Amino acid sequence: MKTLRVVMLVLAVVILAGCSYKGPKTDPGGGTTLTNTYWKLVAIDDIDYEPTVTERETHLILRPDHRVTGFGGCNNFSGSWLLEEGQLIIGPLMSTMMACPDMDTERTLLAALDGKVSTDIAGEFLTIMGSDGTELKFRAMYFQ
Fold first, then answer.
1. Looking at CB atoms within 10 Å, which of 28, 73, 129, 136 has the fewest?
2. What's the mean pLDDT when you consider all of the chain?
């Protein structure tokens, strides 16, 4: 009986914590940093990008432990990153292998992020000039 109470208490805490999540919001607050920020893709080569209503946001996160994770529009991806002489080196990247009807954005994103890229942060926006010349623009998203 005591075990059941503990399990129910833990379950209640998990459910209440899930109900308090309000999703991402924009609010740079104390300043945007390259690492540990949820970067939502907003443009490719100056063309606005917005996922369809049924799609998840295409994004990347550069974690402090030098791991990069993200979602390319169809598949999750991960790999490593390193800052060397002012340039960001990403990869090699690995991704899940799901097939989707439109994989163009994901292919463009992963190709651009492979290797040495240059970065620029202006306010809450990150611009990455990809290793293949593709310009990716991301917006920092913050959680409530």
1. 28
2. 81
**Token code pair at residue 57:** 């946001």
- Reduced 3-state DSSP string for 66-117: CEEEEECCCCEEEEEEEEECCEEEEEEEEECCCCCCCCHHHHHHHHHCCEEE
Q: What is the DSSP string of 24-38?
A: EE---TT---SBT-E
* SS3 state at 45: coil
- What pLDDT score does 1 carry? 58
| Residue ranges of domains in the chain | 24-143
Residue carrying structure tokens 């913050």: 142
Maximum distance among all Cα pairs of the chain, rounded to whole angstroms: 63
pTM for the structure as a whole: 0.75
User: Residue 103 — very low, low, confident or very high, per pLDDT cuts 50/70/90?
Assistant: confident
d(CA 76, CA 93): 10
Q: What is the pLDDT of residues 12-32, one digit of tens each?
A: 433 443 433 333 444 445 568
Reading the block at residue 18, the tokens are 């899930």
CATH number of 24-143: 2.40.128.270
